[in-house]
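We modelled each protein-ligand pair independently. The example shown here corresponds to the magnesium ion entry; the chain sequence is given first, followed by the ligand as SMILES.
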Amino acid sequence: MPLIELRGLTHVYSQGTPFEKTAIDRLDLTVEAGGVVGLIGHTGSGKSTLISHLNALLKPTEGTVLLDGEDVFASKASIRAARFRVGVVFQYPEYQLFEETVYADIAYGPKNLKLEKDEIDRRVRQAAAFVGLDDAVLDRSPLELSGGQKRRTAIAGVLAMEPELLVLDEPTAGLDPAGREDLLEKLFAWRRARQATVLLVTHDMSIAARCDRLLVMSQGRILMDGAPADIFARGDELTAVGLDLPAPAHIAALLRQRGVALPPGIYTAAQLTDAILALWRKGGAPC
Ligand SMILES: Nc1ncnc2c1ncn2[C@@H]1O[C@H](COP(=O)(O)OP(=O)(O)O)[C@@H](O)[C@H]1O
Ligand SMILES: [Mg+2]
């Protein structure tokens, strides 16, 4: 049984007004439990609207959202269950920190779950550790933190809910390259440790390249769905919907143009490095 199944999902904003906008258009999608699914697409393609249905924040105009085969909107209880089982980190979540201390902010969700104090404490400390926040920071006001620490606090608040499906909308946007890499590693480590499923919305093709499966959205529909290698082999189609290839794929293409015999299917820095080293070892310099 798939973890998530969307059947004919349609979302129309401001229906019946001059501002009517079909953001999601009869979209079908199945996500099995486990792994990291990347969601890419040009601005306005419907990514944020799509993910807002997964934890029942938005109600479909038409179609259904199934969580473990059950309609999320069947009852108040099923809506509540979806809110707890699916954790969504929206874009720039640090603007939603509002408690007096970092600890209280991270504890907000688990408190809503009506857990015991000890269990809340365990979850807060574990979630903080997962995102790399020191214990010393927990008693401070979120206002005193750096931008990166605020982002981590907001993410820890969702991790502390221990969701089965963690959905992140551009979690690394605005972070410097080192902060981006560190946060990404921590999120991947969290997923592995908890055997959870992650759906990651990103503009960053080097992040997309590291997902297990990639979905490409365009105009409210899923245009491509497959392994990153297969998606990035379709460079022209990506360009046509306003997306780019990861930088290593561009570099590999330039090297091939200059006569370096690189194999196809290179789209991560690691693959490019390995391919160049392999040529080097075979016969001195690669060209
Ligand atoms: N609250 C809203 N009211 C009206 N239109 C919206 C609203 N939110 C998004 N839209 C429109 O829906 C479309 C999809 O938006 P969105 O889901 O935010 O795309 P993405 O996250 O891929 O940038 C866009 O055309 C956007 O302008
Ligand atoms: Mg968006």
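Residues 4-245 form a domain with the Rossmann fold fold (CATH 3.40.50.300).
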